[in-house]
Design goal:
Layout: H1 2-21, E1 24-25, E2 35-36, H2 40-46, H3 49-79, H4 87-99, H5 102-112, H6 118-123, H7 133-160, H8 165-173, H9 178-189, H10 191-206, H11 210-215, H12 227-237, H13 241-274
Helix pairs in contact: 1-13, 2-13, 3-7, 3-10, 3-12, 4-7, 5-7, 7-10, 8-9, 10-13, 12-13
């Protein structure tokens, strides 16, 4: 019962309230006197070029951060799987960015990619990284990958501990090389963890916010706006809470659809592996 109450108060009620607000021209100063507009806020979103741009940027961020986090996280987990004296130290070092504040690392990367920052100094270039949509997205994606590798590494490392050594030894005795053992033994054994990591990273990719807000503030000219920063601007800068709530509902639907598709596809593969 306590858990159900907390879930209802802090999860269900805010979701219902956001859905209600999305149907109104909700002005925080007018409160309950806000005007009911039905689905006008949703129609407005579909006709808003900035909404589609922010959705595209969120998708780009997801596409260019999720695969590297999976590949690099798994590769590092494989390297740290063997017992070695320095293994705990390397685990801590790779996981440290995960527990570091998003605000701190966002400001750090902002200075690294500044016109006179370390990146330009090392490359010997004068690229204005944060003043162009694509180069700014490169910097934002680089931060996302760097900060997230440690999390996926720890999940994969935990999953790898459960891979039976006897299966790998039997495959090696049968003449299987490293890649064949990895593909036929390791991957099927850690597939549930792989599914969990993929789903969570995709959800996190669509919910990117702090790094964009602090590194570019959606600039230049809104070109690096993502769904959450666009929603934040509409709700808290323009005080257009009805439109902001509609954007939040649309984001929830996008994440829900992607999650359902992933669970369906990967669970089918899991069933095939088990069969």
């Amino acid at each position: 019962m306590p858990g159900a109450i907390l879930f209802a108060v802090f999860i269900v009620y805010p979701m219902v309230q956001a859905g209600q607000m999305s149907l109104y021209d909700w002005n925080i100063l007018r409160g309950a006197a806000s005007e009911f507009v039905g689905f006008d806020n949703y129609i407005r979103a579909f006709n808003d070029d900035r909404f589609w741009l922010s959705l595209a940027n969120s998708g780009i961020y997801m596409l260019f951060t999720v695969p590297p986090q999976i590949v690099l996280g798994l590769a590092i987990a494989m390297l740290l799987r063997s017992k070695a004296p320095a293994q705990p130290l390397f685990r801590v070092l790779f996981y440290l960015p995960v527990v570091t504040s998003w605000v701190v690392v966002s400001l750090l990367f902002k200075y690294l990619f500044a016109d006179q920052g370390l990146v330009n100094f090392v490359l010997g270039s004068d690229t204005s990284w944060l003043s162009n949509r694509w180069t700014a997205l490169v910097a934002i994606c680089a931060l996302g990958v760097w900060k997230g590798i440690g999390w996926s590494m720890m999940i994969f490392l935990a999953a790898l501990q459960g891979v039976p050594q006897s299966l790998e030894e039997a495959a090696a005795l049968d003449g299987a090389n490293w890649w064949q053992r990895f593909r036929a033994v390791t991957v099927p054994a850690i597939w549930p963890a792989m599914l969990f990591v993929i789903v969570m990273l995709v959800i996190g990719g669509f919910n990117v916010f702090t790094s964009v807000l602090l590194m570019t503030a959606g600039g230049p000219g809104g070109q690096t706006e993502v769904l959450l920063t666009f929603m934040y601007q509409q709700a808290f800068s323009n005080l257009d809470f009805g439109y902001g709530a509609a954007l939040a509902v649309l984001l929830t639907l996008v994440v829900f659809v992607f999650s359902v598709i992933q669970l369906r596809v990967f669970r089918d593969r899991t069933d095939e592996e088990l069969s």
